[in-house]
Specification:
Blueprint: E1 17-19, E2 29-34, E3 43-46, E4 52-54, H1 60-69, H2 88-108, E5 115-119, H3 125-132, E6 136-141, H4 144-153, E7 159-161, E8 178-183, H5 195-205, E9 206-222, E10 239-240, H6 243-252, E11 256-267, E12 270-278, H7 299-337
Parallel strand pairs: 5-6, 5-8, 6-7, 8-9
Antiparallel strand pairs: 1-2, 2-3, 3-4, 4-10, 9-12, 11-12
Helix pairs in contact: 2-3
Bound molecules: zinc ion.
Zinc ion binds near residues 22, 24, 25, 46 and 48.
Length: about 350
């Protein structure tokens, strides 16, 4: 179920202890993984549950200012150059992701008449597909341009503006009981101040037996090599998740994990994690301590993996560009032959 990590044999000795504040397990024991730089916050590794996170944490205002004034990695973001969502390539990509998400949801539950909350719905591609199949859809999204597209062009009516700082507590107008919560269009946990608080809130908002679908990135499995360090995402990522820590988050907030694995169909700058979890029926909810169903990657393994990624970056980047050059050449050759 979990990916096999390619661990090089050389041991690393990077073990600077720092005072942390782990959102997943509340431990304060942490090791330094990356010093703060213009490209990343200070990143630490929890000594107890192995969560990688930015420490110290940003204030809610700083987080929202970053998404208003700097962030441009979403077609709907305010700082995206050009017209953003008027670029049909972006819309086509979101429509394709929506079909991928719809297939996943349909494997587990019916859609007609289900109350579905769509968090970070982007331009509303998947929410609109769910609506067309008979679901009653509610959406929350941080970018105005996305909301306008979702309402004006896709005809969605319930789309609430929710800044990133609001995700943990979800101050949205729809305080309902949902059959399904969908966070497949864009990964959310890594971007917010407390994934644990959000997951606890989502657990409350689901009916017993209701499903949570979510997408995350596994930072130990980068797919592209444009950056030297996996942590170089500016202030965007507060958490650097893996298949293990995503599973642990879901299980420690009461969910029953149905799937948590690398999805072969979805790759961006990292391989993506597809997680499907269910709120157990009332009689099944246990108050005992949780035990993860996925084996731990040890601290040593994580540190070695990071060291390996750092050292092999130049080689992997050269391979990436060579592959791209070769495929361009092949395309030109094919054109020439025709
Ligand atoms: Zn922890």
């Amino acid at each position: 179920m979990s990916p096999t990590l390619a661990i090089p044999s050389r041991q690393t000795s990077h073990e600077t202890r720092v005072e942390g504040a782990c959102d997943l397990c509340h431990s304060t024991e942490a090791f330094l993984l990356a010093e703060p730089s213009p490209l990343n916050s200070q990143i630490v590794l929890c000594g107890h549950c192995h969560l990688m996170y930015a420490c110290p944490q940003l204030s809610p205002d700083t987080l929202d200012s970053f998404y208003d004034d700097d962030f441009r990695n979403d077609p709907g973001s305010r700082m995206r150059p050009g017209e953003g969502l008027e670029d049909q390539d972006d819309i086509r990509k979101q429509d394709a992701t929506a079909e991928w998400g719809l297939d996943i949801i349909k494997r587990f539950t019916g859609i007609k008449d289900q109350k579905i909350l769509n968090l970070r719905c982007q331009s509303g591609a998947l929410a609109a597909r769910l609506k067309s199949e008979g679901a009653i859809v509610y959406c929350a999204e941080p970018f105005e341009k996305n909301i306008q597209y979702a309402t004006k062009l896709r005809g969605l009516t319930e789309v609430s503006l929710l800044p990133f700082s609001g995700f943990p507590t979800l101050p949205i107008p729809y305080q309902l009981q949902f059959d399904v919560i969908n966070i497949l269009m864009h990964h959310v946990l890594a971007h917010i101040l407390s994934p644990r608080t959000l997951l606890e809130k989502l657990f409350e908002m689901l009916v017993p037996g209701g499903y949570l679908f979510l997408d995350e990135k596994d930072v130990l499995l980068p797919a592209r090599y444009k950056i030297q360090s996996i942590f170089e995402s500016g202030l965007a990522h507060q958490y650097h998740l893996t298949v293990h820590t995503t599973a642990r988050y879901l299980e420690s907030t009461g969910f029953r994990l149905i799937e948590c694995q690398i999805d072969k169909k979805r790759i961006s700058d990292f391989h993506h994690i597809r997680a499907v979890a269910q709120k157990p029926d009332v009689h099944e909810i246990s108050t005992g301590g949780f035990k993860s169903s996925l084996p731990y990657a040890s601290i040593r393994e994580i540190q070695q993996r990071l060291e390996w990624l750092r050292k092999t970056w130049a080689i992997r980047q050269a391979g990436f560009f060579a592959k791209r050059k070769a495929s361009k050449l092949m395309r030109r050759l094919r054109k020439h032959i025709r």
